[in-house]
Amino acid sequence: MPKEIHLNAFDMNCVGHIQQGLWTHPRDQSTRYRELQYWTDYARRLEAGLFDGIFFADVVGVYDVLGASPDAAVNGAVQVPVNDPTLLIPAMAAVTQHLGFGVTANLTYEAPFLFARRMSTLDHLTGGRIGWNIVTGYLDSAARANGLSGQTAHDDRYDLADEYMALVYQLWEGSWEDGAVVRDRSRGIYADPTRVHKVHHKGLQYQLDAMHLSEPSPQRTPLLYQAGSSTRGSRFAATHAECVFLNGQSQAGVQQIVQGIRSQAVAQGRAAGDVKVFLGATIVTADTDAQAQEKFAEYERYASSESALVHAAASMGIDFAKYDIDEPIDTGKSQAIVSNVEAMTRSAGPQWTRRKLLEKMVLGSRQAPWVGSAQTIADTMITWSEQAGVDGFNLSRTVVPECFDDFISLVVPRLQERGAYKTAYAPGTLRRKLFRQDRLPASHPVAQYRVTPGQPSTG
């Protein structure tokens, strides 16, 4: 019997996310992203389909690499305008009981003390259904927006991230002991101050001398996502992440990355099963293969390759406007998403051109869609799960909400018939649903920051 497949919807609090241009489709509702009911209806829809969660991407800059201008991004709504995803989560949690929420937050521009409180608050309000997608950023525009002249080098950002993680782990796990909160009405004692500790941290990037402001939440540390698959990013993921998000390429290529991350995790004392891998996928489905192809052809008429090029230029850190259509592109030493450059080189060869890139943007992104009947899509997903070793998929939206309605009504029953998808939610927190425990295991580096009674936390 196939192993159980996990599913997240992959979206962003904006108009155009991954599949650029599809917001112009007459049935697409993504321009309603400013309405709270749009998101609460979305949450109900996903929970009815037994999705594990919704995975929110985010950026805190604009895509201004192509032509050294943000104009094309603004014109095509390429992830701008974009609103804060964290503010959606309490409302979506209020209308659901099980749906998880993975939210992207860029640690480069988040003060760790305040960020730790925000995540604890969301973990409380969702009943333990919050996850954090750890990113270090890749946009110079974001650095300039936050008072810097430009972003630091790719690998240096991960060095900063390691220290950041050590600090927030101490706040979440080492400040309030288990049992510190007593809620004793008769004595008027809410919490025992002898069991609440200051965190003392003095590092290369951060200094802190304070107790965590939030009492322990259901998961304490949010479920940890990470999307880096470069050499340095994979090492960071193997150390910290519970769920790793990969973008698609060949099955053999994905399998190699999956095995590498898990091998690195084991080498650091973690179990291979401590890490689940989610593959990005775009799906167009219908009752038959022929109808799915017809729907794909319809969607394709609204896709924007120009807007897709805006996104690709920013994520790779390369201004394609400087190159003629068939001129080989010099990737140089990109400081953007290195794994995207590496993936494109594997796909198109070392001498790839703007024409080769545009040829791959069939639906407004570099991600080739899977098109087929429910049976075809179910077969494809199960094959990827078994042969590439992935545990689930982050499904990008195309035309919303029909893309998820189609998937839930057509593909989910096929996966369930095959024993590859749950028929009901397990109880408990997001981490318990995925890993059968509320808190990170003792094999995770977070364990070194936990305190026993009477032992203060130190950085």
Strand order of the largest sheet: 1-2-3-4-9-10-11-13
What is the CATH superfamily? Answer: Luciferase-like domain
Uncertain ranges: 333-341
Give the helix tally.
15
> What's the CATH architecture?
Alpha-Beta Barrel
Q: Give the strand content.
A: 5-15%
Give the number of DSSP strands. Answer: 13
Q: Biggest β-sheet, characterized?
A: 8 strands, parallel, barrel
Q: How many domains comprise the coordinates?
A: 1
Head-to-tail CA distance between termini: 47 Å
**H/E element order:** EHEHHEHEHHEEEEEHEHEHHHHEHEHH
Q: In oligomeric terms, what are we looking at? A: single chain
Q: CATH class, please?
A: Alpha Beta
Describe the structure.
This protein is an alpha/beta fold and 459 residues long. It has one domain (6-181, 190-306, 368-449): TIM Barrel. It has 15 helices and 13 strands. It has helices at residues 36-48, 71-76, 89-94, 112-125, 140-145, 154-174, 231-240, 251-267, 289-300, 305-316, 338-348, 354-359, 374-388, 402-417, 430-435; strands at 6-12, 53-57, 100-106, 130-135, 181-184, 189-191, 199-202, 207-210, 223-226, 243-246, 276-286, 370-373, 392-396. The chain has an eight-stranded parallel barrel with strand order 1-2-3-4-9-10-11-13, surrounded by six helices. β5 (181-184) and β6 (189-191) form a beta hairpin. It is globular. It starts with 5 loop residues before the first strand and ends in a 24-residue tail after the last helix. Residues 333-341 have low confidence and may be disordered.
